[in-house]
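Sample intake sheet
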Amino acid sequence: MSYAAEFVRISVAHLLAVAAPGPDFAIVLRQSLTQGRRAGIMTALGIATGLTMHVTYSLFGVGILIARAPTVFIAIKWAGAAYLAWLGIQSIRASARPIPAAESAPAPAAGRRGDAACYRAGLFTNALNPKVTLFFVAIFATLVSPLTPTHIRILYGAWVCLVTAVWFIAVATLFTHEPVRRGFLRLGPWIDRTLGVVFIGFAALLAAASLK
């Protein structure tokens, strides 16, 4: 059996999914622009941790049970929708606060408490996203052979989590590059409002899906 072929299929599918703008990208962008590079990186690590949860239960077939249990899956959708809506409201409220001039606003260094909050934001945003659940259920049900040994599946999952962490750390690094960050800070309140609307839009989509 060609595990290399499986690995390539999984890698391509995952790259297409992780590069597509979604709640994970939005939260890393917001944390990076408003709190600095360290905050963005901690958020990225939280997202990668959330992903390990999805990978783990999908590896052992629990993801299929979750996807097929209407009550459980609907509860996850509503929890995700509520959390994204809360993020959206927080972002819109933050847009009303005065922002220092871009030229004199260095990226703040997150403290221990700030690190934990940023990490949790990434973790909850990813862990409560039911689309990630469905993605990994589909990946392991359709792209991975039932005969593939567990240790090979674990390597697939570890690779996906590593690539996700590296991708979002790169995003955090890019958007905290000073020329880029200064440009965004000039539009600070509008960025916050836009991301707030984006989060609420994601929440509305999840809520609508829960009603179907």
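Comment: The mean pLDDT is 78. The two ends are 40 Å apart (CA to CA).
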